[in-house]
Amino acid sequence: MSLCSDAMMLANDANRRFCEQLASWVFQETGVLRATNLRHNEKGVPCLQEHCPNPENYKIEDHVEFYIDMEIKIEGKWQPYEASDIQLQFIMLEPYYSVTLEREPGTQ
């Protein structure tokens, strides 16, 4: 690939930066997302434990709350990932739901 060859990287500083960032992403040193602490429960049902057990089944007409912690790796370090366009797809036999997740006030 001549784009990231020694000659091309020495000839153009922007090309060198691009290739360095590309390599960092390819080797998962930066730009990697991870989701942790996934939890869900029926809306309005209080959670009495620090980590609520996730129900195995929901019924028709149940409203569900879903929580997730998202992080992004930047320069080898995990940091909170802030975005307003993360989507969740919750699938039953029918119908299919795809909704945008909302950030809770005061969280990262």
From TrEMBL:
Coiled coil: none annotated. One of its GO terms (biological process) is protein N-linked glycosylation via asparagine. GO terms for cellular component: oligosaccharyltransferase complex. Signal peptide: none annotated. It holds the Pfam family OST48_MD. Residues 52-104 form the OST48 middle domain. PANTHER family: DOLICHYL-DIPHOSPHOOLIGOSACCHARIDE--PROTEIN GLYCOSYLTRANSFERASE 48 KDA SUBUNIT. This is OST48 middle domain-containing protein.
